[in-house]
Amino acid sequence: EIDGETVTLNVGESLLVRKGARVRYSNPFDEEAEYWSVCMPAFSPDLVNREENSGS
User: Fold this and answer.
1) What is the value of pTM for the model shown?
2) Contact (CB, 8 A) for 35 and 25
3) CA 14/CA 55 separation, integer angstroms
4) How many H-runs (helices) and E-runs (strands) does the chain carry?
5) What pLDDT tens digit does each residue of the chain (56 aa) get?
6) Which end of the chain is less crowded, N or C, counting CB atoms within 10 A of the terminal residue's CB?
């Protein structure tokens, strides 16, 4: 989900997530999924805002 909207990607597709967007990753398919995250500027735990897991 990106800002509450479900987005489904197929093999070989990519997606740009803008700064400040709320993102939740999941895989509704039986086959394993792999994702790569490219962050600019580079990822730093000090720069992210993680929310507590709501149990969903």
Assistant:
1) 0.66
2) yes
3) 27
4) 0, 0
5) 999 999 999 889 999 999 889 999 899 899 998 888 898 888 888 888 778 775 55
6) C
